[in-house]
Amino acid sequence: MTYTGKMSVTPSAAQSPRPVANPLRRNVAIIAHVDHGKTTLVDAMFRQSGVFRANERVTERAMDSNELERERGITILAKNCAVHYGEVLINIVDTPGHADFGGEVERVLSMVDGVVLLVDAAEGPLPQTRFVLKKAFERGLPPVVVVNKIDRADARTQEVLNEVYDLFIDLDATEEQIEFPVLYTSGRAGTATTDLAVPGTDLRPLFDAIMSHVPPPSGDPTAPLQMLVANLDSSDYLGRIAIGRIFRGSVKVGDPIAVMKLDGAVQQTRVTKLFAFDGLKRVEVESAGAGDIICLAGIEDINIGESVVHPEHLEAVPPIAVDEPTVSMIFGVNTSPFAGRDGQYVTSRHLRDRLDRELLGNVSLRVEPTATPEQMKVLGRGELQLAILIEMMRREGYEIQVSRPEIVTKEIDGQRMEPVEDLVIDVAEEFQGAVIAGVGQRRGTMTKMVNHGSGRVRLEFRIPARGLIGFRSQFLTDTKGTGIMNHVFAEWEPWHGPIPARATGAMVSDRGGVATAYAMANLQERSIMMIEPTVEVYEGMIVGENSRDNDLDVNITKEKKQTNMRASSADEAIRIVPPRLMGLEQAIEFINDDELVEITPKHIRLRKKVLASNLRPKKSDD
Fold first, then answer.
1. Could you report the per-residue pLDDT of 455-497, keeping only the tens digit for each?
2. Using CA atoms, how far apart are residues 77 and 71, in angstroms rounded to an integer?
3. CA-only gyration radius of the chain, Å
4. 601: helix, coil or strand?
5. I need a surface site. Which of 130, 172, 220, 264 has the fewest CB within 10 A?
């Protein structure tokens, strides 16, 4: 996989007129910011195009099939489906809306001929809206703009449409691209209209807009086969399944084909199974032609970005180019005293094999070796992307320990450069002062401030990516959980200077044993506890946050001495303040450079890198 600032231009984006491959096909991607309603809108398209039977029980957000996606309510992996509208088959790709999963968007845009850009009628264009639209423009894809959630009480539809026009102009859209059709929809109700004064009754106007504004796929069906692999899946029976679009030619079961590998090698093989999409299902087909999005089964070791071509015409499609990773973390084998208690996969070989498997389908991820074989450096787009990977590994039975996220830097013309992000914050007016002060401490500069008069303010900042590490938990505290923040990579800028780390120290257990309520009652006056009584601890495990900036070694296993003497206070009940139990993302944000997060299928623990207190370097006064 190549990393560049630009998308590679595959045959779909070529400017010269190409022959129409199949007038009865449309290939379209649905792109938007996170939580603007992409997957819900696809649900409504399924219902109205007859994908589901009238009496079929259907789960909400049918495309979010992954367990983590359903829990968090976000799309993590791009997925393919297809719906019928009249005689035309519309291939739809549902894409993630979070900036950390931008690599999913970049690679699926190689399969489509147009995009449906969804914008929330209240929130308007946000950072990921700009990111996905910019990538679509780089490929020359025509957009259909859909203003969704028009039934929201705080919808400001006309203002949002003006903001979309401003965004198009800002991204240097061509005259053809800026003449986009606009639809007003409610994905939940399943209605669309081209005129706000005329309420919609169904999604037919949306289907019509896709039919008229998204061109049919181009390509010569009689030319030699050329297909780009843009996605991977696997099956217990069929092995690895390559998903991609045929740019020219045709293929049928039994045909000899050649796979052009990324390293230049050529692998000769045959087509054993061929599938097309129909609704959410894959249906077996005998042949497919230019413009079709298909699945090829039975090709060993095929990867994203490789080309499937005719064996006598070895002409590869330019590989998919994605933006560079900006955040790195060290993944290591669990070395705590409790290692191996919960997990099934605990060795460095297991860890390396799992990361190698992840690289097959995740084009925006990179893995680099470190000085020791027990640790691997994993580079990704952001904290959330790496946290999702860790959570998936945890649920699969892996035990690992991870370091604090670090920013990837690079040298340009002898100058140290770091990634800078566009940060958009939506908060109540009463909290704006605390938020502006918090971002300012992290070297952020305000670029825009908009008050819509609804009691909430939108603040836009330019901030170094390392300033965002650990910021989310502080932000939610400052806004009492009501703030919304979104960020996306903007560009590389010269190093902005030091950014203060966590201001408080850690309370560290100085011995192994079981935490007691008696010990915690005495310690909670000077700290915020992070574990509950009766939890087993080990030396070097972090059990609380100290109120001062130094680390404190404590005996959290201390028990009350029993005597025969009675005292007036003997029967007083011990009152324990509820501890702050951290999830995976909060733990990763909380730790300092000399700390690690230990992750097992059943527990998330915080610990010092050096467990023994007498070997641990003390924090200096400066």
1. 788 889 999 988 888 788 788 888 888 888 888 888 888 988 8
2. 14
3. 27
4. coil
5. 264
